[in-house]
Structure formats: C-alpha cells, structure tokens
Amino acid sequence: MADAIPFIEILGYWLGIFLTLAILSFLYKDNPFYKFAEHLFIGVSIGYIITQQYYDVLEPKLVDRIGVPAWHVLLVVVLFLVALGCAAVAVRRRSPASVATAAAAVFLLAGAVYSLFQSGNHQELGPLVSSIDWWIGLIPLVLCLMMFAKSVSPRWSWIGRYPLAFVVAFYAALEVNGLVQADLGAQMQRSMADLDREKVNINEATPEELTQLPGITPPVAREIIEQRAEQPLSSIDQIEALPGLTPAQRATIAEERGHLIGLDARAGTEPGQRNWFRIFSEVLLLLGLLASLVYFYFSIEQKGAVGKVSRFGVWILMIGFGASFGYTVQGRLALAIGRAIDVMGKDKDPALAERIQGPLVAGISILIIVVGIALWELKLRRAGRGSAGGPDAA
Amino acid sequence: MDKGRVHNRPSLIERLQGFDRRWIFLAMALAVVGPLLRPCNLPFKASPMVKALYNTIDELEEGDVVYLSADLDPPATPELEPFFRAVVLHLKRKNVKIALGSTWYAAPPLIERWIRDVVEPQIARPGEDGYQGAPDRPYRKNEDYVWLGFREGKQAVINKLGSDLWGNYDGRAADGTPLDQIPFMKDKRQLDDFDLVILLSAGSPGAKEFVQQVQTRYNIPMVASVTSVMTTDLTPYYDAGQLLGLAGGMLASAEYEQLVGLPGLGTQGADVLNVGQIVVILAIVFGNVIYFASRRRRRFS
Question: Which among A84, A122, A371, B232 has most CB atoms closer than 10 A?
Fold first, then answer.
C-alpha cells in the first residue's frame, strides 16, 4: 500500500518534518530558517483561505444565487466603467502609456460584450431578475462592496461603516440571546434547583431523575424501576447486584459508588434525605462568586471587612486561573506530542513510516538547520552585528 | 553593597536566576521524545465526564442518525483526532448513521482525510492485535454517512442549523448530491431531528456556541470533545446538564479510546503527556524555590 504512494507525497512528508523543525528552531533564537517557515506558512494559509472561502461560501451563497448571466452583465458594466475612466485619463494626459491602457480596457470591454451576446446570457437575465430571491441575494454583494470603500479612500470610508454596523448588530443580538438563555437562564435555574434538592430516592424517582445519577444509564434506570416494582430497594449497593446488568454497567456503578453514597452523596433509599455536600458546594460557589465580584468593585476602598472578602475572591479567582493554566499546559504539550508523533511516523502505517524514514529525515533536517544557523551567526559576527536575541527578542 | 562583593563570583542562587530557559525546552523535548521511543505505560482511568459521554453514545440504537460537527484546525488534531477515531468506531459498531459538517474553514481537508482513513474502511478487524470489542464495518458515502461541508458564518450558521439545516447546506452534500436523495437524511431537516449531536471543538465557534445557540433553545441532546484549553469553560455546561458528556484534551481522548478498546494516538500521547507534566511540575517547583530563596536572601542582606 505504501509503495502506491507517489514520491511527491513522500516529499511532502519530508518537507513537513523540515518545516516543523525550522519553526521549533525559534526556541533557540530568531533565525532565517524560522522566518522562511513562518512566511511560507502565512502565504500558504492565505491562499488556502481564499480558495476555501470561494468554493464553500461565495460560490454557493452568492455566485450560484445571482447566476452566471448576471455576473456576465456585471463584468460588462465594471469593464465599461474602467474603460471610461481610462479614456478620461488618456484624454487628459495624452501620454502613450495612458492611451495604451485605455485601448486595452476598450478591447477587454468589446470582448466581454461579444461574449455576452454570443453565449446568449443576456436573454436569460430577464427571468432571473424577476425573482425576489435574486434581489435578496444582491444584498450581501452590496454590503461586501460597501466594505471595500474603506480601503479606497479615507473620504469614502464612511460607506464601510454601514456593513460593519450590520455585522456588529447581527452578531451582538445572536450572542446576547445565546448568553442569556444558555449561560444565565439555564445555569442559574440548575444552581437554584440544586440548593434545595434532596437526594434522589431510588425507590420513587422518575427515569429522568435516575439517569441524572452518576453511572445510571437509561437501561440501568429501567432495571431499577422493574426491580423496585417487585420489592423496594433497601440499599444503594443493591443496584450493583441487579440481575439484568451487563458486567460493564456493573463495573461503572461500582466505580461511581463514591458519588452515589459517599461525601458527594447523590442517591438514597429513604425519603427526606438532604444532600448536605451538594448544598455546601452550592453555598461555596455562591460566596466565591460574590467575593470575586467584590474584588472587581472599585467604588469602595478595599480594606477592613471588604478587603477580607475581596482577598477571598482573589483566592477563588486564582484557583480558577490555576485550573485553566493546568489545562493550557496540557494543550501546549499535546501540540508538541502531535508534531513528535508525526515526525517519528508513529501515527502511520508501518510500511509508509518505513518509506518516509521520519527520524532519519529529522536528523538530517536538524543538521542542516544547526549548520545553517552557525554559518549565519558567523556571518553576523564578521559583519560586527553580534548575535541575535533569544526567543524573547522577536 | 561593598565593592569587594561586586567582584566576587556570583552565588548559586544568582547563577540559577540567570538560568537559560533553553535548557527547559531541551528537557521538555527529551520528555516528549523519550516516552515515544520507550513507552512507560503510566496508568490512567476514565473520568466521570468521559464515561457519561461514552454512555450517551452507547445508548444509541441501530439506524439512529447523529450530526457530528468538527469545528477544528490542524493544531487541534493531536487532541481531537484520537477522539474522532474512537467515537467513529463506537458509532460504526452500533450501525449509527453519521452526518458530518463544520463551521471552520480549516477543517475540510482534515475531515476528508479522516473520512478516508477512519469512516470508510473497516478499522477494527476481528482478532486484530490491540483491538477489543466488536468489529466495525466499512461505511459507504451517502448511504451510511454524509459529508455536508463547511459553511462560513460562525454563530449565525449554528443558529440556522437549529432551524433549517438543509437551507444552511443549500440542500446538498459537499459532493453535490441532493440531500433528498440520501435516504437517512430525508427527514433530518434541522438539528432537533437528529438523535444526538456530537461536537469536536477547538475554539470559537464550537461547543459553547452550539450550547448557546441551539441546545438550550431546542433542548437537543449534545456531547462534546474539546481541547484542553476549552475544558474549564465547558465544564459548567456539563454540570448543568446542557452537555450530556464532555471529553477535554488528549488525556480524555485516551480515556475514550480505553473505553472503546481502541488504544491509538491518544493512548500513546497520554503516556508522553504524563511524563511532560512531571517535567512542567518540576520546572514550576524549581522556579518557585529560586524565587523564594532569592527573596529570602534579599530580605536578610
């Protein structure tokens, strides 16, 4: 299978390994290999974005909707305006260059007009423009063209503010709506319900309530309901011993036993049991939230009792930032691991990895980069410019 | 400070304060490459959030249809590709149909490659070394799965998926096949029509926007696999029941691989991650020791 892969693709893998190491060479210091890889990456990315946006967005949403005949007519109109402008410049300057430009524009215009009548596209335009959807399809095009006014001249930049205002208002409305519904509404509702919620009584709970418990999936909940119809359960441990469970379900419940009956107790068999740990957690969450808000309240001097509350808020914030930092470190490490796995060919079919010879290519790439950087530094020293800075210098 | 001390050799703490950070980069490189060459197989166990995700998918039945939104780019592949492979195997074992879409322009080449490598071929053959559980079967395009493509528009696109999925994709799949010619898509006009929405998210727009724009409004069952950086932002949605399961980062992907019985890239990476994190912890402790020692020295000098 690996033999069927063309050499050009293998070359692509080699280039990928070299560019990965060229980017990583920045950890030593800013250098020409890093710059080359960075610029190549930006250039390729921009080319990719333009192509992708055209085929997946502009073509289906704009070009197809407006139709080829309309684009053809628009091309003729634009070329007519360009030819008119070039002709005006040629008349005023009377230089050979301006006359030649005007002649070229007129030639292009004539070609577009000839092609319009030759293809018969002008005849299809009538039924197209009579549809209301066609005119609605023009709105994004007009908004796009208005946006370009900002780059034409500062005098016309005000035109670009209208599409921007449209975009900002549209997304602000979407965002606010989503935040209120999903973040404020749903989560506050959930928190408030938790504060006074008793433990789930497995002898009385509905299937929905049962499936909220850790380890209780819908089939397990069905099994509990069948069992308790015959005889109420006297202990949580009886769930694990229900006859209709699979070994995997039984193992999951055994692992979740701590959450079901431990400190963070979620389930019980007696009516009226309160989940004190959950109540404590919710109260702590509320106090932490209020204390954090106090820290950001600058209208009162933060000393005395306010200062102490604010200090508590700082601790809560630090715990939150610590958790985020831990996850961020994990994410950055995963990036490095991903590249290492790719370079070493650990994610590839063994035959393909054999053909690519990742570690060997990596070794050669490191050698090229090290020698290259050494020569570059030597050249800099000879030129009297000293050594470039480390990673922070860029 | 007297003049004599200026000419003294710098103390150990002073030398450590000027410690070149590139040694830490080198230590980290060794910590990453070392376990890949010689795996340590440090143990890990699936967390409740990942188990909840697994259980939600395990509840799906044959013939169900899921919408899988892969909102990611190449940097997210180490964390999310292992999850994609494991979850697709899980879905294929249960004969669940898959509709794939994306709101990220960088995702299509990745998704198309994953379709070729994971969705279309059989990936867990009976008796093959390393795989546990039932085998899967090859999936056929537009019969067992459909790739709908990418649409620009961020939250607006997600919002529209909730009310008019067909309109969002102009009534056709990425290869141009009309959606009404794909049997399992005939009655899937909006996200609410799917049996489950699975999100693979590397940022915004992603899982957060799906919860905000469509989950809460239409009460759609959703699970998400996200990058580590996003995990703390998404956990409240899991706690509030808006997400039925959540896998955050490479370690969670490895946990899912473990549950599915497909040790792969995530399991390899989790081993390295554990060693790498030990190096990070040592670096933090080292930095703090130097900081407190120099502060103590300044206080007493």
Answer: B232
The residues near A323 (Cβ < 8 Å, ≥ 6 apart) are B232
Nearest to B240 among A49, A171, A190 (CB): A190
Range 215-244 of B in CB contact (< 8 A) with A = 215-217, 227-229, 231-232, 236-237, 239-242
Chain B CB within 8 Å of residue A190 CB: yes
Q: For chain A, percent helix, then strand, then coil, each to nearest 5?
A: 80, 0, 20
- Domain of A303, in residue numbers: 284-341
CA atoms within a 13 Å half-sphere pointing along the CA-CB vector of A352: 20
Specify whether the CB–CB gap between A292 and A316 falls below 8 A.
yes
Q: What are the backbone angles phi and psi of residue A349, rounded to the nearest 5°?
A: -60, 135
Alpha-carbon distance of A30 to A45, in angstroms, equals 21
Let me know whether A43 and A18 are in one domain.
yes
Using one digit for the tens of pLDDT, what is the confidence trace for A250-302?
A: 877 877 777 777 656 677 777 767 777 778 888 888 899 899 999 998 888 88
Strand intervals (E) in chain A: 200-201, 267-268
Return all residues near B27 (Cβ < 8 A) that are at least 6 apart: B279, B283
The CATH number of the domain holding residue A230 is: 1.10.150
Asked if A81 and A153 sit in the same domain, the reply is yes
The label of the residue with tokens 């103390």 reads B11
Answer yes or no: is B272 within a domain: no
Burial class (CB in 10 A: 0-12, 13-18, 19+), B52: buried
Tell me the residue type at B282: L
Nearest CA in chain A to B249: A331
Question: Which residues on chain B are in Cβ contact (under 8 Å) with A181?
Answer: 212, 216-217
CB-based contacts of A174: which residues, under 8 Å, 6+ apart?
A: B155, B156, B159, B213
Count of structural domains within chain A = 4
Contact A217 B250 (CB under 8 A): no
Chain A positions touching B58 (Cβ under 8 A) are 217
Which of 1-60 (B) contact A at CB < 8 A? 21-22, 25, 28-29, 32-33, 36-37, 48, 51-52, 55, 58-59
Instruction: Give tens-digit pLDDT for B35-78.
Output: 888 888 777 888 888 988 998 898 899 999 999 999 999 999 99
CB contact under 8 A, B36 and A347: no
Lowest mean pLDDT among A160-174, A277-291, B3-17: B3-17
